[in-house]
């Protein structure tokens, strides 16, 4: 046996003995604990030590490790890696409904809405009692312009569970999109009565108020959102819209600058945004436009 072969052999034995000394359940528990406190990189290391073992492990153990690894990657924003990990999991566990739902969310965040809808369909077929996948599907349908279809799903969910917050919020957004502003605002208010710091409801209500030209009230919604989360780029963008419509040019440009710094893709929307007509010819606005060119 060559020296290199001996080295590889010793290395393999060392890894084998190391694996024998580790408990897979304990590794998974440690990974979950690390993820719980937001240390997703460390969590992934624990899950990989289970997934990459040379010693055979139970199918359920590998499925659990893959599931939590994918979720950790998702939380880190490593969406392509998360998708690949969910694919590995679903190859060995094709009936894992929660994994299908989570994969749908990854695809949704990647703006692959049609693929997300397909994943949500798989999840809802496997778990007909869960409303999570079906409401997620409805949100994706709304994002590809199938607002009426999305609204019908939200209404069906609310028929069975009138207090389902996700469905209430989805219905409110769909109605706002369909210019049913009064009913939409009532639904946003219903949500805010229970959860006064719900950022999605506050921003949704603000956008609806912009549509009906109640700019001061809309501004209040966006400012309330930013008092809760000062990095909410959607609130900053729509705050800029409200201020521009109120002809408060300097502060509108300040808000828009923050919105673009938080989400550079906002630059792509500036040219066609009619709400910015009052500030369109300013030097600062033109500089922001050039960032996208």
CATH class (first level) name of the domain at 197-293 = Mainly Alpha
Strand runs, count: 0
Overall pLDDT confidence: 91
What spatial form do the alpha-carbon principal axes imply? globular
Give the biggest sheet. Answer: none
- The share of residues in extended strands comes to under 5%
Secondary-structure-based class equals: mainly alpha
Rg value: 24 Å
**Uncertain stretches of 5 or more adjacent residues:** 4-17
Task: Please name the fourth-level CATH homologous superfamily of the domain at 197-293.
Answer: Tetratricopeptide repeat domain
- What's the architecture of the domain at 197-293, going by CATH? Alpha Horseshoe
- What name is given to the CATH topology of the domain at 197-293? Serine Threonine Protein Phosphatase 5, Tetratricopeptide repeat
**SSE run:** HHHHHHHHHHHHHHHHH
Structure notes:
This protein is an all-alpha fold and 293 residues long. It has a domain at 197-293: Alpha Horseshoe (Serine Threonine Protein Phosphatase 5, Tetratricopeptide repeat). 75% of the residues lie in helices and 0% in strands. It has helices at residues 3-20, 24-36, 40-51, 59-75, 79-92, 97-109, 113-126, 132-143, 147-160, 165-177, 181-194, 199-211, 215-228, 233-245, 249-262, 267-270, 283-290. α12 (199-211) packs antiparallel against α13 (215-228). It is globular. Mean pLDDT is 91; it is low at 4-17.
What's the SSE blueprint?
Blueprint: H1 3-20, H2 24-36, H3 40-51, H4 59-75, H5 79-92, H6 97-109, H7 113-126, H8 132-143, H9 147-160, H10 165-177, H11 181-194, H12 199-211, H13 215-228, H14 233-245, H15 249-262, H16 267-270, H17 283-290
Helix pairs in contact: 2-3, 2-4, 3-4, 4-5, 5-6, 6-7, 6-8, 7-8, 8-9, 8-10, 9-10, 10-11, 10-12, 11-12, 12-13, 12-14, 13-14, 14-15
């Amino acid at each position: 046996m060559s020296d290199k072969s001996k080295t590889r052999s010793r290395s393999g034995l060392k890894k084998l003995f190391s694996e024998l000394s580790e408990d897979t359940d304990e590794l998974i528990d440690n990974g979950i604990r690390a993820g719980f406190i937001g240390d997703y990189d460390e969590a992934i290391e624990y899950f990989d030590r289970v997934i990459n073992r040379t010693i055979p492990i139970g199918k359920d153990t590998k499925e659990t490790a893959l599931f939590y690894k994918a979720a950790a990657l998702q939380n880190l924003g490593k969406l392509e890696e998360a998708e690949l990990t969910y694919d590995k999991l679903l190859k060995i566990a094709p009936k894992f409904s929660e994994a299908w739902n989570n994969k749908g969310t990854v695809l949704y965040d990647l703006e692959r809405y049609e693929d997300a809808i397909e994943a949500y369909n798989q999840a809802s077929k496997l778990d007909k009692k869960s409303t999570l996948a079906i409401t997620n599907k409805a949100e994706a349908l709304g994002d590809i312009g199938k607002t009426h279809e999305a609204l019908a799903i939200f209404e069906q969910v609310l028929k069975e569970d009138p207090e389902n917050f996700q469905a209430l919020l989805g219905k409110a957004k769909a109605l706002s999109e369909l210019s049913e502003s009064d009913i939409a605002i009532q639904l946003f208010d219903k949500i805010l009565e229970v959860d006064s710091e719900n950022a999605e409801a506050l921003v949704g209500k603000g956008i609806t108020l912009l549509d009906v030209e109640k700019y001061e009230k809309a501004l209040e919604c966006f400012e309330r959102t930013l008092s809760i989360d000062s990095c909410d780029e959607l609130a900053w963008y729509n705050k800029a819209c409200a201020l521009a419509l109120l002809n408060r040019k300097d502060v509108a440009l300040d808000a828009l600058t923050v919105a673009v710094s938080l989400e550079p893709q906002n630059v792509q929307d500036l040219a066609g945004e009619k709400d910015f007509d009052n500030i369109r010819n300013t030097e600062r606005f033109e500089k922001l436009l050039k960032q996208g060119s």
